[in-house]
Amino acid sequence: MVILGITHPISQDNGACLLIDGKLVAMAEEERFIRIKFAPRIFCTQAVQFCLDYAGITLKDVDYVAVGFDRFLNNIIPNLTGQHVGYGFLTAGFFSIHMTRHMFKIPRTLYKKAPKFINHHISHVNSAFHCSNFDTANILSLDGSGGNNAGFIGYAEGTKLDIYREINNSDSLGHMFSRITKLLGFRPHADEYKVMGLASFGSPDPDGLPFIEWDKQLPYINRKKYRQYRKWIHNVVDPKEPMKKVSQDIAATAQASLEKVALRMLEWGVQKNKSRNLCVSGGIALNCAMNAKLLQSGLIDNIYIQPSSWDSGTALGAAIQVYIDKTGNIPDVGFTNPYWGPEYSNEEIESAIIKSKVTKYRYVENICVETAKILSENKIIGWFQGRLEVGPRALGNRSILGNPQNPKMKDLINLKIKGREPWRPFAPSILEEYASEYLENYHYSPYMMLTFKINPKKINDIISATHVDGTARPQTVSQEINPKFWELINEFRKLTSIPVLLNTSFNLSDEPIVCKPEEAINTFYRCGMDCLVMGNYIVEKTENDYKGSPILKTN
């Protein structure tokens, strides 16, 4: 059975996947192919084609098409009942217009397959629970909106999903956090992680956001107070100066309130079952500080967050649901790693190097040993290996890497390459075997979805990958899951005694993570990276590459 999973083009982050007999074969985001960040409201044409090509099939071989969004009326009608009336009508109107408009972006060839439309949050949940290897789990699915609601609290066991409580769109945590993101001067649906980072500099109001009513077990938003609070922010915040105390405190209060509401939801949910596991899904699941608070609550023992928790993950969740509906069985998805996108051989990499007229490159047999030596010399490396990862975070196959012990490394990467705000942190990638030495209260964290306090004795080892509050958002690297990246970090450890590398995504500001060798080369020459490592090839810059460039000049 061949199932093609796609996102509805109304989505903010579009992508596709392919299941064959219940096993995941390929998965990728559209942004990686068309080079438009997130590919919002764009149908996943090239992601679909990649999945089919990778499997060596055509659309004729596909048995079912699954869409990670419900049908028109199923999204409209629930907004007209059971929540704040005014907001409900506005939301219903929004989805009436946009679903009609974007529905026509789905090609007719796919409509001939009679696509199965799956509830957005059920799709989110499936992509997490059925990849977690948990037998049972508490469920939190939360984002801006999935059409008929903004998420739900529930319980999953086998093929059964119990929805305890839906979260109305008028109480949407995702929409609230995005609105505050915009008022602070950042881009909504894109820069929420900046608010999370900024929060560490501020002091949260102990009473929380003033428009959240805390008198019930499940807090809710007072719409009138919410409007008043937005007006207040507009009057006191300078969007061009996010480091002012008032902006820091607003960010801190928004983050603390998000965590408190999510904890209340978890407390309410775990009372209804005996599971000590939790799956978190939806866009809010990318808030790693919130996830850490849930894990540390004492209410659960284990947590799983799908690395593609944003909208593109609904393509996988919808495909899983269609498999369950058609077979009655749990699919053995095989999601043991995040690497499901395109990959390129040494021959293809060399061809791209030659076509790009690179003047200085070499083939290296033991690429990890050589690259580790370069990193130990405080050089900044572009690392391009294996299959492209899914989700918004680089996890060792399309990464920019540096020495975390160098206290200047964060500023160097920001200045020479990323062009990011200097207060934003970078992440450490750490060998799994050493994680408990560096991270307090360590829990398995392969996807950069949790924050941890760094052992004070180890902070100097990874100073450039540690945030201002002494925390980090690590990727723990397994030899079994990513042997080449593990080997690179291990070779770096042999030279420096530090089993950690600073890791950030291989892209420049406002661009998607690179997909092809040509894109990696292009990015390399447009910024201050010192070396580009692709497969077994090392590309370096010549003096002519530096001349006349304020970014690349060495002095």
Give an overview in words.
The protein has 555 residues and is an alpha/beta fold. The chain folds into three domains: 2-133 and 311-327, Nucleotidyltransferase, domain 5 (2-Layer Sandwich); 141-305, Nucleotidyltransferase, domain 5, CATH 3.30.420.40; 346-546, DHBP synthase, CATH 3.90.870.20. The chain has an eight-stranded mixed beta sheet with strand order 13-22-21-14-15-20-16-19, with helices on both faces. Strands 3-2-1-4-5 form a five-stranded mixed beta sheet. Strands 8-7-6-11-12 form a five-stranded mixed beta sheet, sandwiched between helices. A hairpin with a 2-residue loop joins strand 7 (151-157) and strand 8 (160-166). Helix 6 crosses helix 12 (313-327), helix 10 (245-270) packs across helix 11 (288-295) and helix 14 (367-376) packs across helix 17 (483-496). It is globular, with a radius of gyration of 23 Å. The chain starts with a strand and ends in a 9-residue tail after the last helix. The relative contact order is 0.12. The model has no long low-confidence stretch (mean pLDDT 93).
